[in-house]
Amino acid sequence: KRSTLAALSLAIATTLGAGLAAADPIVIKFAHVVAENTPKGLMADRFKELVAERLGDKVVVEVYPNSQLFGDDKVLEVMQLGDVQLAAPALSKFSRYTDVLALYDLPFLFEDLHAVDRFQQSEAGQGLLKSMEKKGLIGLGYLHNGMKQLSSSQPLRVPEDAKGLKFRIMASEVLEAQFEALDAAPIKKPFSEVFTLLQTKAIDGQENTWSNMYSKKFFEVQPYITESNHGLLDYLVVTSTEFWNGLPDDVRDTLKAALDESIAYGNRIAYDKEAEDRQAIIDSKRTEVIELTPEERAQWVQAMRPVWKQFEDEIGADLIDAAYAANQ
Ligand code: LMR
């Protein structure tokens, strides 16, 4: 009897003790591949700060930049396993999960980031955030980086100049088709390898934003950058449905508000960096920036535009029309 009593009081004491101890904070690992001084890097750091301010010891955000934890080829897979809670891969990197986001890779679809904003804020644009829910991923918002430019070991003025050259691309079939339309050779490689591939001349060129080319020093190993603004590099801030829906309602609401604020902050930086990092690259004198005449630009449009037709069925003609209409 005495031992039953002792066991009972021990059980009560243990239960009480556990109840009194503070619950472990929820850890949000945010993994990304770019440098810290970029729209995405700064957005992630701002989110971490806001969460620390507002959710104190309930939630801790850990940011892993520069592909430290995972590259974009792995991050969505491990997110579904619960090893990472937040990421913001380029919209080009979701093709294993949905066809429709390929829209954003179509060459010469958006004239500038203002048009991108108009489309993303529309009903059609917002609807795309939910395109992967059945696959266990939720888009929490769009984040900008900027318009893409072409860098190369050779001067690129007209599409024929790209013929036969090897270009690194993100893992996207649209981007593959875009370079094939130029009779160039697209090669899918992770972002973390691009600098070395360029430096060792294993590839001839790549397409990226001013911000990525500046922060990762691509301009130091590429003698020419053509200011083509031919495509968009934007991100989807993404989490797993299971993680997000499993959060207490108040925590989820506070996190969403902090995310919205940090995304807005990142987007302002993206606009600034399009101009600032472009200028810094020009000032470095390490590379020649080629500005296209309207006639030259029209040739690039003509060469790449057939890609739209190739992907029209997968993406949807209505969606393409809606996105293009955002230019007006
Ligand atoms: C790339 O792979 O070139 C980009 O997606 C990197 C990034 O996240 O901006």
UniProtKB/TrEMBL annotation:
GO CC terms = outer membrane-bounded periplasmic space
Q: Where is the signal peptide?
A: 1-23
- Pfam families registered for this protein in UniProt: DctP (PF03480)
Q: Which controlled-vocabulary keywords does the entry list?
A: Signal, Transport
In terms of domain of life, where is this protein from?
Answer: Bacteria
* An individual GO BP term: C4-dicarboxylate transport
Tell me the CDD domains matching this sequence.
PBP2_TRAP_SBP_like_1
Which InterPro entries does the record cross-reference, listed alphabetically? Answer: DctP_fam, TRAP_DctP, TRAP_DctP_sf
Annotated PANTHER family: C4-DICARBOXYLATE-BINDING PROTEIN DCTB, PTHR33376
What's the family?
Belongs to the bacterial solute-binding protein 7 family.
Name of the protein: TRAP dicarboxylate transporter, DctP subunit
User: Which organism does this record belong to?
Assistant: Allochromatium vinosum (strain ATCC 17899 / DSM 180 / NBRC 103801 / NCIMB 10441 / D) (Chromatium vinosum)
